[in-house]
């Protein structure tokens, strides 16, 4: 539209401030003098949570698993489950996934640190946290392509999934997910 022929064109972008719409005006100069104007709604910026594992003393566990097997494990969990509990312990069973579904259906998978699925296993303290299973489902497409997954938890129950995908040219792509734990009744405070 604006690239063919001897037309001159210009673009003007205007925003009057934070939260105000972004106005984009595209003008074609010439015989027809065509003007296109649109308004794009914007949102006010918000502070992002610091969801990283910078402080090594806060890390409770680090586990590296084979990607295909981890994907298969999550795929076998009850598709209708609402929550999944992840228990990690220095004692057997070292890694346990327990799903809680509708109509009180439950699925449980226990993995020891000698399992072929695990590449490395490091756990300082036992931890048990529940997460929305929906958050795991959001990562399933990425997990289906993974060759390795690094699971980390911190003392507050934050679960980090770092997914490694091998590219066709033997390079690696990393995708990282952070999943916040559900609050238990003990954690909630009244106002």
TrEMBL record:
GO BP, sorted A to Z: DNA damage checkpoint signaling; DNA repair
Q: Which UniProt keywords apply?
A: DNA damage, DNA repair, Nucleus
Q: Which Pfam families match?
A: Rad1 (PF02144)
Q: What is this protein called?
A: Cell cycle checkpoint protein RAD1
Gene3D superfamilies found in the cross-reference section: 3.70.10.10
Q: Provide one Gene Ontology cellular component.
A: checkpoint clamp complex
Transmembrane helix as UniProt keyword: no
Family of this protein: Belongs to the rad1 family.
* Annotated InterPro entries: DNA_clamp_sf, Rad1_Rec1_Rad17
Tell me the compartments it is located in: Nucleus
């Amino acid at each position: 539209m604006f690239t063919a022929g001897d037309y001159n064109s210009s673009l003007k972008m205007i925003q009057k401030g934070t939260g105000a719409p972004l106005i984009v005006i595209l003008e074609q100069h010439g015989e027809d003098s065509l003007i296109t104007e649109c308004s794009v709604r914007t949102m006010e910026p918000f502070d992002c949570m610091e969801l990283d594992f910078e402080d090594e003393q806060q890390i409770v566990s680090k586990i590296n698993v084979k990607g295909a097997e981890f994907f298969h494990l999550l795929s076998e969990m009850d598709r209708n489950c609402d929550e999944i509990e992840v228990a990690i312990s220095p004692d057997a069973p070292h890694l346990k996934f327990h799903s809680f579904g509708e109509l009180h259906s439950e699925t449980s998978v226990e993995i020891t640190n000698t399992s072929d699925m695990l590449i490395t296993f490091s756990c300082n303290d036992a931890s048990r946290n529940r997460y929305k299973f929906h958050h795991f489902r959001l990562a399933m497409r990425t997990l289906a392509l993974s060759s390795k997954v690094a699971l980390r938890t911190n003392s507050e129950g934050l679960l980090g999934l770092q997914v490694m995908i091998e590219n066709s040219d033997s390079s690696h792509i990393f995708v990282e997910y952070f999943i916040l734990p559900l609050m238990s009744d003990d954690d909630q405070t009244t106002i």
